[in-house]
Specification:
GO terms for molecular function: 18S rRNA cytidine N-acetyltransferase activity; ATP binding; tRNA binding; tRNA cytidine N4-acetyltransferase activity. Its EC number is 2.3.1.193. There is one protein chain. By secondary structure, the chain is α/β, with parallel strands linked by helices. The chain has four domains: 161 residues, Rossmann fold; 162 residues, 3-Layer(aba) Sandwich (Rossmann fold); 241 residues, Aminopeptidase (3-Layer(aba) Sandwich); 84 residues, no CATH class. It has 27 helices and 19 strands. A seven-stranded mixed beta sheet has the order 13-14-15-16-17-19-18, with helices on both faces. Helix 24 packs antiparallel against helix 25. It is globular.
Length: 728
């Protein structure tokens, strides 16, 4: 790209930026046209502004020649998928290059990093709605191609931006500047004696210190929108606490250490101001999993960005560290703070009544009524709120939501997405695009009058031919999407699962004020009735996948769903083992469900003795309730290899199936091997197999016993030994 002569009025931009800086506001600069023209315009505006650093955000990893375009050496390319690395930092400007692909999550995350007086550039085609966005590849489940997907989300974005007060430049047209609010300059007040930037932040610091002195010790929760100084307040309070308790040990945990950057910066700056940098006490960071595993002694634990940590892990942290403060973003790039609050607050009410909740309202990084914050919130519905649920005498009705209409009706979309945000703690801006544009999505809802009361997000899956299903079973293919169908095919060991048609209930949620009134169950029943009435479009199965807890499992069991698989590792999002349940709707599905459930019961005891040995007792009781005779029958049949065993062992021998997923079949195989007179229990390799399958040897212990160079060589040894013993 060759940078041409500036074709906009530089003085207009300078005047605009001066006023923006004086008011401590930020703005969106939307550049529309051909890719080269938009990039040239962004570079020229950066040069006029005199900014020496910033980031150019691209969804693709292909290097862009930023310095050859004329940008200073302080500008760097940032892949959209790593955008959270910038959280906590401040930049004079950012460029979001939608020609490389538009990532809603990246925009949501990075908008809070633009400092007061700065711009966020958004580069798009003039007709964005007809552009084949490369980032849509992530939305296209097999057999769809990205270019076949609708562009409801992009169409909505373009419509909103065309009617928004943004700095706009279209190729071949004059720049349009938004009307800035009139009034005097907005100066940031000098820091208070406590180091706080605002009275609001100082009140929080004082409340934190007061609470940490209470006996008995009770937890605190701090919530705030982005840019309010939540993490900085934690750092200031931690420094004052350590100054008053010089030998104390304080711990900080968060999803990433980068998320605590401002906390540590304020902590060290405050200690320096207090001339207390040589105290024997300390403030250390520990990742959540390492903290729970090691549980080092500490006088105080601070948990930052708590909404991004599964609630079960937060409950464990609270049990281990009673003097604990949890802080999280109420709305912003995660889009999950409010849903987290509902779930975690319920736990606190039950376990630690009397806990306290503090909030920050006043922004610090920028002045109130910031235009960029408003614009991004509206584009991504970060501030969407569901309405209050209807009254008992309202007209309740069940409907399928039309996504074309949903994309056009902003109020309804905000209500529906607000319900998602409120009721599910992992909702993010990317989910809004998936909701509107991912193929095979069905949205079922219960309305109280005109207000959504409950919602089910359904994803169509399966329908693969036999050849492709076999490829998935053997691990040679991983078509995009089809989470449940592929998991039951590969992990569960049933290729037929990928061939049948599924409706996977990706999420089902009820307005918090209407929960425990039976609306979720009624919605599930309505969906099942609707599915059976679809004739040629009817799915064979309804299914779901979620973190196994004693709270959720009874709901699905009461609706007629049956457990068919339990994951052997904990899901990083939920902190629980993933449980998959199904409900058959066709005769072929009934036969497969019976086979999958029997296999689940047959393998469960082996898994509970091994990788699932820490599964909560209440979950085990729910999984096996009413199944005592079935489990006993499975145990009596364990000696002989059945068709599922043979299929799994064949895949294992060829290197397509991990040994942990083949545990029951391998135990049967070893028992049959030991019945052969030519194979002795005391043989070296037999002892290795017994240690692995029966004595829970760790992989490291087995590698040491076998004298292998490393863990990566274990799989090859197991397959070779399996074939050797089988042939004797």
């Amino acid at each position: 790209m060759r940078v041409k002569k500036i074709n906009f009025k530089a003085w207009e931009l300078k005047n605009f930026l001066q006023r923006l800086h004086a008011q401590r506001h930020r703005h969106l600069c939307w550049l529309q046209g051909e890719a080269d023209w938009c990039r040239q315009q962004a570079v020229q505006r950066i040069q006029v502004a005199g900014w020496q650093q910033g980031f150019w955000v691209a969804a693709s990893t292909e290097p862009l020649p930023l310095q050859a375009w004329g940008l200073p050496a302080g500008f760097h390319q940032l892949p959209a998928q790593t955008s959270r690395k910038l959280l906590g930092s401040e930049q004079p400007c950012l460029v979001v290059d939608a020609f490389t692909g538009f990532s809603p999550d990246a925009l949501g995350a990075l908008s809070g990093c633009v400092q007061a007086g700065g711009l966020l550039f958004l580069l798009t085609p003039d007709n964005w709605t007809s552009f084949d966005d490369p980032d849509y590849q992530r939305l296209a489940p097999w057999p769809w191609q990205a270019e076949q997907l609708p562009k409801r989300f992009l169409t909505r974005c373009q419509r909103l931006l065309e009617n928004a007060e943004v700095l706009q430049a279209v190729q071949g047209q004059a720049s349009i500047y938004p009307q800035l609010p009139s009034g005097s300059e907005t100066a940031l007040a000098p820091a208070l004696a406590s180091g706080a930037a605002t009275q609001d932040q100082q009140r929080l610091v004082q409340a934190l210190l007061k609470n940490w002195q209470l006996k008995p010790q009770l937890p605190q929760v701090v919530t705030a929108n982005r840019g309010r100084g939540k993490s900085s307040a934690l750092g200031l309070a931690a420094a004052d606490w350590l100054y008053a308790h010089p030998e104390a040990r304080l711990l900080v945990t968060a999803p990433t250490q980068l998320a605590c950057q401002s906390l540590f910066q304020q902590f060290h700056a405050r200690l320096k101001f207090l001339q207390a940098e040589t105290l024997t006490g300390q403030l250390d960071f520990k990742a959540p999993d390492a903290l729970l595993q090691e549980q080092p002694a500490a006088d105080l634990l601070l948990v930052d960005e708590a909404a991004a940590i599964p609630v079960p892990l937060l409950a464990q942290l609270l049990a281990a560290y009673p003097r604990c403060t949890f802080a999280t973003t109420q709305q912003g790039y995660e889009g999950n703070g409010r849903g987290f609050a509902l779930r975690f607050f319920r736990h606190l009410d039950q376990q630690t009544p009397g806990w306290s909740h503090q909030q920050l309202q006043e922004p610090i990084r920028w002045a109130p009524e910031d235009p960029l914050e408003k614009q991004v919130n509206r584009l991504l519905l970060l501030d969407a709120e569901p309405p209050e649920p209807g009254q008992a005498n309202d007209d309740y009705h069940f409907v399928w939501l039309d996504r074309d209409q949903l994309a056009q009706q902003e109020e309804l979309l905000a209500q529906v997405f607000g319900l998602l945000v409120l009721a599910h703690y992992r909702t993010s801006p990317d989910d809004l695009r998936q909701l509107l544009d991912t193929p095979g999505v069905r949205l079922a809802a219960v309305f109280a009058g005109s207000k959504p009361l409950a919602l089910a997000w359904i994803q169509e899956e399966g329908g693969m031919d036999k050849a492709l299903a076999e490829e998935v079973f053997y691990g040679r293919r991983r078509p995009q999407g089809h989470l449940l169908a592929q998991s039951l095919c590969f992990h569960g060991g049933f290729p037929e699962a990928a061939q049948l048609r599924w409706w996977r209930l990706q999420r089902i949620l009820v307005h918090p004020q209407a929960q425990r009134q039976g609306w979720g169950s009624r919605l599930l029943n309505w969906i099942a009735t609707q599915a059976r009435s679809k004739a040629s479009e009817a799915p064979d199965f309804l299914g779901t996948s979620f973190g196994a807890t004693a709270e959720l499992l009874p709901f699905w069991q009461a609706a007629g769903y049956q457990s068919v698989r339990l994951g052997i590792t904990r899901d990083p999002a939920s902190g629980e083992h993933t449980l998959q349940l199904v409900q058959a709707l066709s005769e072929s599905a009934e036969n497969l469900q019976r086979a999958m459930h029997e296999r689940f019961l047959e393998t469960l005891s082996d898994l509970l003795a091994g990788p699932l040995q820490r599964l909560p007792n209440e979950v085990i009781e729910l999984l096996t309730r009413g199944e005592v005779q079935a489990v006993a029958n499975q145990q009596t049949r364990k000696k002989a290899l059945n068709s599922a065993d043979k299929r799994e062992l064949d895949a294992f021998a060829e290197g397509h199936r991990p040994w942990l997923l083949t545990l029951t079949a391998l135990k049967k195989w070893l028992a049959l091997c030991l019945e052969k007179p030519q194979i002795k229990e005391t043989e070296f390799e037999v002892l290795a197999w017994q240690g692995l399958l029966y004595h829970q040897w760790s992989v490291s212990e087995l590698v040491d016993y076998l004298g292998l160079p490393g863990k990566k060589h274990l799989g090859a040894w197991l397959r070779s030994s399996f074939k050797s013993l089988s042939s004797r």
